[in-house]
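Anyone able to model this chain together with MTE?
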Amino acid sequence: MSGEEKVGGQAGAEATDTEKHIGRRTFIGLVVAGLAALFLGKEIFPHIPAWLSGSVNTGRFRINSVAAGPDFDPATWRLTVDGLVRKPLKLTFAQFSGLPQVEFTRDFDCVEGWGVKDVVWKGVTMREVLQRADIDPQATNLVFHSSDLVYTDSLTLEEALRPDTVLAHEMNGQPLQPGMGRPLRLVLPGNYGYKYVKWVVRVEAIAPGTDGYKGYWENYGYPVDASIR
Ligand SMILES: Nc1nc2c(c(=O)[nH]1)N[C@H]1C(S)=C(S)[C@@H](COP(=O)(O)O)O[C@H]1N2
Ligand SMILES: [Mo]
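re: yes, here you go
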């Protein structure tokens, strides 16, 4: 029983001021509840919009993936650009990386209320890619397909042609981590994170007409226009 005594005996000596004031059990309870809220919050309250939660900035990305695809293999990886284009493309990663690069810093926000400030993205603008594919004038939207074969989302051509709409292969000066979309993810500044399709392997030009196109989260009710207002 000396162990127990030791724990009890030293608790007073080692207790912080906070512990002394609110009692050790309450303190531990609060810590556990706090941690649980931190890790489980997303699961318990999955659809809190950013405006309601006050755009909590956690300062780090929470890996948010509904499915996983194969890991990046430069020998077999290709970026396909097809659909309503006159010159379909199939680029190796070396060919893609050889295209003109842009780099800029923007905040990132998930619609669920967490975000990361000042993320540095580096990649190739969609404008640059589309020029090479010679897009058909009938096309009005682009669908971005993930190698997980589950996740997709779309952009209007207007969104795609903005100077800061990029397929990024670097974040904060490093190649994308595997869970963050290695080697490529879509970046659409000013829009919620669900548009930032990870593991992009195919860009398909389409003309969905009045029906529109619904991406993964948009089929669950999130707006197709994900701009942060
Ligand atoms: N392929 C794929 N891309 C995805 C997702 C996903 O589940 N699968 N989740 C989206 C959502 S909702 C967000 S908020 C961001 C999260 O980016 P992170 O996992 O790098 O933090 O990725 C987006 N891109
Ligand atoms: Mo998200």
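DSSP finds seven helices and eleven strands in the chain.
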